[in-house]
Input
Amino acid sequence: MSKPFDYSKWDNIELSDDEEDCHPNIEKESWFRMKHRSRVEREENEEEDKKKINQAMARDQLRIDELTRMIKKIECADPNDSDDDLEDVDGMKAEVKELEER
Output
C-alpha cells in the first residue's frame, strides 16, 4: 500500500497580500488609487461594450422581424406577380440568415 501524502510542509506557508505587488519607490496609497481607477475604467469600458452589443443585437432582431414579415407578405401574395419579388425573397432570406449567424 502506498504512503499517504504528507502535507505538513505547507502548514507554515507565508502568503503574500496585494500590498506586496507595489514597487518600494511608489506610495502604497497612490498605487491603490491607480489600481482602483484602472479597474473602474475597465469596468466602465466593459459596460459600454455590453450596451453597444445589446443595441446591435436589438437592431438586428428588428431587421430580422421586418424581413420575416415582408417575406411572408410576398409569399402570401399572388404567385402571378413579377419575378422581381422572388429575387427579393431570396435576397431577404439570405440577409435573415446572415443576421441570425451574428
